[in-house]
Each structure stands twice: as structure tokens, then as C-alpha cells.
């Protein structure tokens, strides 16, 4: 398996809320700039002396069990004038709340903290809310949903 690029207009899921957010970043669809989502790549280095000119990536392949990726030994370079770090953060423990060190998350059921029972009035959100049911969900969508749940639990 190799990395692929996705054209949101060719996608079977072209009405995805994630793609709507990305489309909103470019006011003129005919503009020469674009955002490309690439998968199974690990950044190795940023290329350029005074500003970003590209990024060198190591290609990965899915493991046999599909649980992760492993380096293939191949690299590729992608031209880029802007590089954003948007992955790799990890949740930190909050005093007096349960915390799963292995996943960097607060155990929860739809945002309500559990230990092992639901703690009424205590909610988690964002990266520390992620669990196996939510892997791959978009951060913006999760934040919005967590805010709605929080508001709904307070206003009753």
C-alpha cells in the first residue's frame, strides 16, 4: 500500500463536514493554492534555507494487522511554501480525574468522565476525549460536539 492524495471533489464523501471546513479555507476555488491531504507519510525534514520550500517524508505501509504503519525505507519530497504542525499532541493528566497513560485520554462516555461510573458534571473534550470509537474524527467536529454536550448538561 502507498500514500494517496485525495481530491475532495472526486471523493465519494464529498459532502463531509471536514471537507466543507477545508473548502472554506480557500475563498476562490479557482485560486492556484491548494491543500493536499497525504496519508502514510512521516515528516523527516523541512527543506529550505530562509523559508519552507518543501518537506521530505518517509513512506509507510500499514502493518498486517492494520493497527499502525511501518517505514518502507522510501522517501519522497513535497513542495511546500507553508508547513503547519497539526498532529502529535498528547493529553496530559488532570488532577483528581482518571487518566489512561497508554492512550493519553480521560476515560469517558460521550464526553462524560467515567471512573468506572459516570461523574456527573465533569466533562472532557478535545484530544483527551478520544477513544477507540472516535479515532479519526476531526478535531473541529469533536470540539463542537463536546461544546454542545457540555452546554446541554448545564442547561436542563
Automatic annotation (TrEMBL):
Compositional bias (Basic and acidic residues): 109-118
Sequence ranges of Low complexity compositional bias: 1-16
Start and end residues of each stretch annotated as Disordered: 1-25, 100-156
Name of the protein in its database record: Uncharacterized protein
Species in which this protein is naturally found: Actinomadura latina
